[in-house]
């Protein structure tokens, strides 16, 4: 089988390693078949799409809507690398699944608008599939209404005209969309389980997602309802595109 790639941007080793472990666990892949590239630490290598089965993108600290002067040199580099990669991915309709951070690069690449109007605090939200989502193969076996983990400072305000809306939540209208037939992005985190989100809550205190005295309340908000179904998407993606 040709490998998949996980493009990651987390600078902290503990949450970065945990994210990779979650993608491995719930995709069913092993380390030989899911190659991780830590973009915060090194430039994106040339990705020969003919040698790959598909691309995953993990979450991370970068916000596409931040003013240019507030973005680090690493963020400017990563955004330019994603723009170039997406030129080829979209043109070829190559299998791509961006989780949380993937919304920004893909949404902007397609002409969507992204800002902080529909940000969501860390926790669990109910997500509803659209008709297009309910019939999409990546969401096979996922119920029409399901719980998902979220936590983001920005979101798509206006979906690009090239995209199909697949899922929405009461506080964030664009939770998942597709471009073409094979290029996906989710605002929620399909890879996360409860242990994983609690680890991130402890790792990202002081990053502006919650106040210093809100750690316990944030963990409670993330534990208030079971989250089981989104992870199925990762296995569906692998089963559909492995080659």
Automatic annotation (TrEMBL):
Transmembrane segments: none annotated. One of its GO terms (molecular function) is transferase activity. Residues 48-193 form the Glutamine amidotransferase domain. Keywords: Glutamine amidotransferase, Transferase. One of its GO terms (cellular component) is cytosol. InterPro entries: ChyE-like (IPR044992), Class_I_gatase-like (IPR029062), GATASE (IPR017926). It comes from the Bacteria. Pfam families: GATase (PF00117). PANTHER family: GLUTAMINE AMIDOTRANSFERASE YLR126C-RELATED. This is Glutamine amidotransferase.
């Amino acid at each position: 089988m040709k490998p998949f790639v996980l493009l990651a941007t987390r600078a902290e080793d503990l949450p970065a390693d945990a994210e990779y472990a979650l993608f491995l666990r719930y995709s069913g892949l092993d380390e030989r078949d899911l190659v991780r590239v830590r973009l915060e630490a090194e430039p994106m290598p040339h990705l020969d799409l003919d040698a790959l089965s598909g691309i995953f993108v993990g979450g991370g600290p970068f916000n596409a809507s931040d003013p240019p002067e507030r973005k680090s040199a690493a963020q400017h580099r990563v955004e330019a690398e994603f723009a170039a990669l997406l030129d080829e991915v979209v043109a070829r309709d190559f299998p791509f699944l961006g989780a949380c951070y993937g919304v920004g690069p893909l949404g902007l690449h397609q002409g969507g608008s992204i800002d902080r109007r529909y940000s969501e605090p860390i926790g669990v939200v109910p997500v509803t599939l659209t008709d297009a989502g309910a019939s999409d193969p990546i969401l096979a076996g996922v119920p029409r209404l399901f719980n998902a983990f979220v936590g983001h400072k920005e979101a798509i305000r206006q979906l690009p005209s090239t995209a199909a809306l697949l899922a929405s939540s009461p506080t964030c209208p664009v939770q998942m969309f597709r471009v073409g037939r094979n290029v996906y992005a989710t605002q929620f985190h399909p890879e996360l389980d409860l242990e994983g989100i609690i680890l991130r809550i402890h790792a990202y205190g002081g990053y502006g997602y919650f106040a210093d005295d809100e750690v316990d309340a944030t963990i409670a908000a993330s534990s208030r309802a079971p989250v089981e179904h989104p992870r199925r998407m990762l296995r569906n993606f692998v089963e559909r595109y492995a080659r």
